[in-house]
Write a structure and sequence with these properties.
The complex is a heterodimer of chains A (about 290) and B (about 300). Chain A has about 290 residues and is an alpha/beta fold. In chain A, about 45% of the residues lie in helices and about 20% in strands. The termini of chain A are far apart. In chain B, about 40% of the residues are buried. Classes of the chains: A alpha/beta (about 290), B mainly alpha (about 300).
């Protein structure tokens, strides 16, 4: 059987020299200082997995673990700095499709623009147009410029376009709960249909009920590496356990920092155990004497 | 279901560094293969320009006319310049210059403006500067119509069949602009300073090009510039691509001002040797620009 997605020793390195977001720079400054003054950091490292058709993979992990970077790499948006990604089939990213919207084009114009951005032939898109318009259900606004839309209407149109794409491999970032109550119900059902139709799915979510409902395999990522890979229930349990530990250590460290008992040199010990961004930046803001 | 697609379905990405030739081939294939996308982006661009202002797209014609009016007043009233048919003299150079300046200004920000999109959808980023340049091409056609009307109605003494050279000169300018646009659009992602700096450099470039003055003529007090720059400076000024382009435009539309600056010979063919050389240079610039853009493209999503 041929695979849907395969990665081997995948690594993605960000150069901090060109990262404009100073907050991110500050957050990670502790990390690259420790690795010998290198002005870059690895968002993903040694990620190897294989996804077969029929599998629906849930990606979980704390903020900054590399889930979104992995999704972007699988979509071909980001190129690997080392290793290989192989994708077998047509990929669709149900990310914020509203990102591609143009304010001046009409709803219909934006349907065609989104299709063109995703590389779908315009004839196929023309065939699907009516279906998308019907599902979005925004009435006469479909022919008005997008800048006249309410945010609810935008979300509906974005969702309708995104789920009309019919891909082999679906990459899903948690953005799909949008619109009013009635639309949400309709969209939940639609997601189920799209997931069932796709050959393979990769799903990122912080909502563990999504993972257990829609995924039949889960991967836990921490600090850019795969920590666990297996049945959703087990991996979710491990993730919960790790988050608990992180939370406890964070409050402990904070309390000790406030009381001033812990010397700066010793803070590193907790950090190397299970560091995350908040703790690293907390250490940086209070330099030792 | 089999999706008919303009983009490759399966792919394999790794850290290897592609050759310049394959990058160039990719760039070419992407622009040809994504014509639809480019067309949609252009139509969005034209609409945006039209809806921001009350007069809409009329501004594109009005803007260079007003600019010409300002220079006309400044130079002929305040500085007492007496070049014959000075309005046509100015307009034949200001219009192509405006085309260049607004193309570069649009192209510089074309990639960074789509930050959100680039991070969320995989598509060839080269369509962004290309569509920015192409939508300015549409605007130019309005301006060109005005020039021709002006020439026939108000300055028939200048008009000759040599205006037929205009598309050739415009093509050379288009290639030059495209090459430069690809480079500045890509580099601006890494150093936003390019965007700020380019506005000032373009203004300086305008005054160093024969826009308000002409070579070999008293028109525009070129004598003063000549004295200030010396012989080497003037030779360098003649190598400036816009010295060749603007002179060519003025040759075919206005003709030539005589040395004293008080008479003119009507429209004549451009200097084909200089124009041909610039054409080859511009083609090379497009090739280099496309390679630089494609080389930097993989990093866009990470840096933005």
């Amino acid at each position: 059987m041929t695979f849907a997605i395969q990665t081997r020793d995948l690594g993605v390195r960000y150069s901090l020299r060109f990262t404009k977001k100073t907050s991110i720079r500050r957050s990670f400054s502790g990390m690259f200082r420790r690795s010998g003054g290198e002005r870059s950091f690895w968002a993903l490292r040694e990620v190897s997995f294989r996804l077969d058709p029929g599998e629906s993979l849930g990606l979980i992990g704390p903020n900054g673990a590399g889930k979104s970077t992995l999704l972007q790499t699988l979509a071909g948006i980001i190129m690997p700095s080392e290793g290989v990604v192989e994708v077998n089939g047509h990929v669709s990213t149900l990310l914020h499709l509203q990102a591609g919207f143009d304010q001046e084009l009409s709803g219909r114009g934006n349907i065609m623009l989104a299709g063109a951005l995703m590389g779908i032939d315009h004839r196929v898109m023309e065939e699907r147009e009516e279906g998308i318009v019907t599902f979005a259900d925004i009435g006469a606004f479909i022919d008005a410029p997008l800048r006249t839309y309410s945010s609810g209407m935008r979300a509906k149109l974005g969702f309708s376009i995104a789920t009309a794409v019919d891909p082999d491999i679906l990459l899903l970032d948690e953005v799909l709960q949008t619109g009013d109550e009635a639309f949400r119900e309709k969209s939940h059902q639609r997601i189920g249909e799209v997931l069932a139709a796709a050959k393979a799915v990769v799903l990122v979510s912080h909502d563990m009920s999504w993972i257990t409902e829609f995924a039949n395999r889960a991967i836990l990522m921490e600090r850019g590496r795969i920590v666990a890979d297996g049945k959703p229930a087990e991996v979710v349990a491990l993730h919960m356990e790790h988050s608990e530990r992180r939370k406890m250590m964070r409050s402990e460290a904070l309390a000790e920092m406030k009381s001033g008992r812990r010397r700066p040199g010793r803070r590193k010990e907790i950090a190397t155990d299970l560091p995350d961004r908040t703790m690293v930046s907390a250490r940086r803001e209070r330099p030792g004497p | 279901m089999d999706i008919a697609s303009e983009a490759p379905a399966s792919f394999r990405s790794s850290a290897h560094r592609p050759s310049s030739a394959s990058l160039l081939k990719d760039a070419f294939r992407e622009v040809i293969g994504r014509q639809r996308l480019i067309r949609y982006l252009i139509s969005a661009d034209v609409r945006r320009r039209g809806s921001d202002t009350i007069l809409g797209n009329v501004w594109w014609v009005l803007d260079p006319l007003l600019q010409m009016g300002v220079y006309l007043i400044l130079l002929s009233v305040i500085l007492q310049r007496s070049t014959p048919d000075f309005a046509l003299f100015l307009f034949s150079a200001i219009l192509p210059w405006k085309w260049f300046a607004s193309s570069i200004t649009d192209a510089v920000s074309s990639v960074v403006r789509q930050e959100r999109l680039i991070k969320q959808v995989q598509f060839p980023k080269i369509v962004l500067p290309v569509s920015a340049i192409a939508s300015e091409l549409i605007n130019l056609s309005f301006g060109a119509a005005i020039v021709l009307v002006m020439l026939v109605l108000f300055f028939p003494a200048h008009a000759t069949v040599n205006v037929a050279w205009l598309p050739v000169i415009a093509l050379v300018q288009f290639l030059f602009t495209l090459g430069l646009a690809l480079i500045v659009a890509a580099v601006n992602v890494f150093y936003r300073d390019v965007g700020i700096l380019s506005g000032h450099l373009i203004r300086l470039w305008f005054f160093l090009s024969p826009s308000l003055w002409a070579f070999d003529s008293a028109a525009g007090r070129f004598g003063a510039i000549e004295d200030a720059l010396g012989e080497v400076g003037v030779s360098l000024l003649r190598l400036n691509p816009f010295a060749i382009l603007l002179t060519a435009y003025r040759d075919v539309i206005y003709g030539r001002v005589n040395a004293a600056g008080d008479g003119f010979t009507p429209g004549q063919p451009p200097d084909l040797v200089a124009l041909g050389a610039l054409g080859f240079f511009s083609l090379g610039l497009v090739v280099i620009g496309a390679i630089i853009f494609k080389r930097l493209e993989p990093a866009f999503a990470k840096v933005l």
